[in-house]
Fold this protein.
Amino acid sequence: MTIARKTHDRTTYEKDAPQPGRVLDARLHLLDRQLLDVDDVPVTTIDDLEIHATGGDADPVGGPAVLTNLLTGPVLGTRILGGRPPSSRLERIAWSHVRAVDSAVKLGIHGSQLDATWVERWVRDHVIGRIPGGRHDPE
Amino acid sequence: MKRLLGVALGVLTAIGGFLDIGDLVTNAVVGSRFGLSLAWVVVVGVVGICLFAQMSGRVAAVSGRATFEIIRERLGARAAGANLAASFAINILTLTAEVGGIALALQLASSVDPRLWMPVAALAVWLVLWRVKFSIMENVTGLLGLTLVVFAVALFQLGPDWGELAQQATTLAPSGTETWPSYWYYAIALFGAAMTPYEVFFFSSGAVEERWTAKDVGQSRINVLVGFPFGGVLSIAIAACAAVVFLPRAIEVSSLSQIVLPVALAGGKLALAVVIVGIVAATFGAALETSLSSGYTLAQFMGWSWGKFRRPAQAARFHLTMIVALLVGLSILMTSVDPVKVTEISVVFSAIALPLTYLPILVVANDPEYMGTHVNGRATNALALVYLVIIVAASAAAIPLMIATGAGA
Amino acid sequence: MGSILRHSAVVALALGSLAPLGWLAGCSVHGETGSGATTPIGEAVDEASSAVASAQLTSDLLARGRLTTTVADTTLRDQLHVLQGATGALLTVVPGDAESVRLRADALRAVSEAQAGVADARVWVRGGPGSPASVAARLDESGDALSSVSDAVEAS
């Protein structure tokens, strides 16, 4: 699936020939959306997208590109005040794991298999899990 | 028959869950100083909260998503972040007031100093959040809170001059030694007490907790449109009791202990016991709701796993947020600040934060992508716009009036 | 959101924010009554009167068996706090003229007598010496003293 191109500069590109599948708008359908795992448990919000050129190049300017990863990370400060964190501080979730896109983006795997859920797992293991009753269903 | 019971339960819990420490204190203070001349504010506030609670419940039932997630997605991180910051801060303040209210009410039952009850109250609130199912929690506190109807009963037993009360209610002006700035300051406080911001987030997240679908929108409408107005009637009853007992004696209400005196006057020790149970239940329920709201708003904004329907291990950061919120509230209370003063400040700041918390809901309720065909009708939107004017006016006037009247002195 | 709704919302926001400012501007023209140091004295005396009246109501209810000792004790303790606050307010006032000095002295005397009366009422509530009649009489006296100070403040 290729994404519809949205660029900041005003250079116009030729439109792709119509292809089978859905056209998604990155800003509208992907960014800031909730990411759910296969059990519908929330994983994180989608903070950014990683796009590579189809040749495998990291910089896709001026050529066909493909969405490789969803990114999430410590973006609260940067979203409000400006700028973005360096790419090494962002967690990657492979686009290939995505199973469905509607009002939330749904993955086909469990959240625990992702690096991106490490904070939740840490809090669970070191704080909540240590309090009696934390691992039981509420009654 | 079972359906009828279900509907009745929903309505009764809505009535019982409507009042919190903000309503109790603000209505009693207003009744003792202004009589019923501010009763119209309760009416305006109840209509407003019915409108917005209905909208947010509908949004959650139809879209299956809780309000804050949608706010973040539609309005972006900055707007949602501002909304979150304001809501979270007010929630903590309100939570502090509620836990303080539990402690004050327990003092009335036991003579034990409230500062000793505060950690107990906070722990009890946390235990319920930790282990008790959402629906049980709601139903128990809601039904027990219904005992506050004793204020309405007490009002009748006091045998007031109804004509005079009616005259107070229709005289939309300050009486006696009160001034216009105080009148409007307390109008805003009463408005903030009735249109508590946390209610809206709690309502919509609760809809997701209880797995409402579009079919449940009807039930929620009944709960809200029957339950909340009855709750408003109880608020006015509290103000009327204060008006009948305190206004002629020139008593100004400044403590919870005074608030129960009219009930004791009317019904003796039995009524007193009932009202204390009711106050404990109402403040406990509200403490649960504000803690949950803190958890909901932060978790939904950040995209964390949330919900009481999940075991705590599966919603770790959500539960951690609530624990931290309770601890912050408890530490504020342990500085010996007067919980009644905290309550009075929290209702005014609730009014100040209303535009930030309600405008996004209006935006989302009109969004066809989430709501499909269930977007707001034209009448709802018209009413909501009227309320937007009122909310923004109240919010803008609050701080100047607070300064001009010395916070209502 | 439709553009009509968006525009209406903006108008609503604008109206909402301007309305109270305009009203407040008009309000400041009228101003408040009261002058010099007498308003704070008057307010403190009113607070004290309210506390005494609450204490009277509480003692009366307890004597009639309509209140529990716990609630009565708590109420009286809360009113003692109010009286302390009133005393503190009176002490921090700086009277401008001889008459205000006299008024403040009278007020302080009346408030401290009220404090003693409420404190003794609390002793009776907790089972100590005293009787409903003596408590009521003492509180009535305090109430009268406070209201005559209040009248004097208003007259000044």
Observations:
- The radius of gyration of chain C is 23 Å.
- Confidence is low (pLDDT under 50) at residues 26-36 of chain C.
- The CA atoms of residues 80 and 116 of chain C lie 9 Å apart.
